[in-house]
Design brief:
Blueprint lengths: L1 H21 L4 H15 L6 H25 L5 H23 L3 H21 L12 E6 L5 E6 L1 H18 L4 H11 L4 H25 L5 H22 L4 H25 L1
Antiparallel strand pairs: 1-2
Helix pairs in contact: 1-2, 1-9, 2-3, 3-4, 3-6, 3-8, 3-9, 4-6, 4-8, 5-10, 7-8
Length: 273
């Protein structure tokens, strides 16, 4: 038991580091680790529902530290975050119910396809340009160096898109930041730092809502939460320090390769089950 706890502590640290470096939640790594490693330790005990629920709770815990830091730095558009939460909250609840409909093979296949989409998004995200859409709320933000940004959002579109992100978050047990940040950047022209910070606050709120729903359905393994949560928290802190010394292009290439490998593994496993 001690060895498996230490192993998941290390998994939490590694996922926290990579997640922090890439600006995304560790769920895309937590879920495969739970499905494979936990089922090796106790065959047949870790279902997709338990894996997603456990991962989402860990994300909620670790997102708290980032959210508090960003709020202290005044980088979170709190009013916008609560508007997005109006959509992501019900989405995070329905996502739990969608997850309950999937068996292990179907979950692995869909999760693998989701990871492939994230791989493609990482390939093209730097080439995407902000779109011109009607913004019924417009705001300005001044960075510390004096740079002025104009951004905003369309209320109904924000709620609808947040509902989709909330569903994905609970369905797969991921944070959803890799979807939310591009939405804020491309559709609503949020400044990059504010997009990451506001997205993290929305993810925290959504993960809490989804975790409460999972808790009511007994879809959380506390045995694995205990080592993963502090590991991911520590990994997030280490990731922030490593980011200052690591070349951005090296990181993105590493992340793309890792996600592609995990995606292929999940898809192959779905046909073997």
């Amino acid at each position: 038991m001690t060895m498996i706890m230490l192993l998941f502590l290390c998994i939490g640290v590694l996922a926290g580091i990579v997640g922090s470096l890439a600006g995304m939640g560790g769920g895309i790594f937590f879920v495969p680790a739970l499905l494979y490693v936990a089922n090796i330790y106790e065959p047949g005990t870790m279902t997709p529902q338990l894996a997603a629920g456990t991962s989402l709770l860990v994300i909620a815990v670790t997102a708290l530290s980032s959210t508090l830091a960003y709020i202290k730095q005044k980088k979170v558009d709190i009013q916008a975050a609560w508007l997005f939460f109006l959509g992501s909250a019900p989405g995070s609840i329905t996502g739990v119910y969608f997850n309950k409909l999937l068996d292990a093979a179907t979950f692995s296949l869909i999760f693998g396809i989701f990871q492939l989409l994230m791989f493609v998004l990482l390939l093209i995200k730097d080439r995407l340009k902000p779109l011109s859409i009607r913004l019924d709320v417009q705001r300005s933000y001044r960075e510390a160096d004096g740079t002025e940004h104009q951004y905003g959002y369309n209320r109904w579109l924000a709620v609808v898109l947040a509902f989709f992100v909330g569903n994905v978050s609970s369905l797969f047990g991921v944070g959803g930041g890799i979807l939310m940040v591009p939405i804020l950047l491309i559709l609503f022209r949020f400044p990059p730092h504010m997009a990451t910070a506001t997205s993290m606050f929305v993810i925290f709120l959504s993960a809490c809502t989804g975790s409460i729903t999972n808790l009511l359905h007994h879809q959380i393994s506390w045995f694995y939460v205990l080592p993963l949560a502090p590991g991911a928290w520590l990994g997030g802190l280490l990731g922030a320090k490593i980011a200052a010394r690591m070349k951005g292009k090296t990181l993105i290439v590493f992340l793309r390769v890792l996600i592609l490998i995990l995606a292929i593994q999940m898809i192959v496993e779905s046909f073997l089950e």
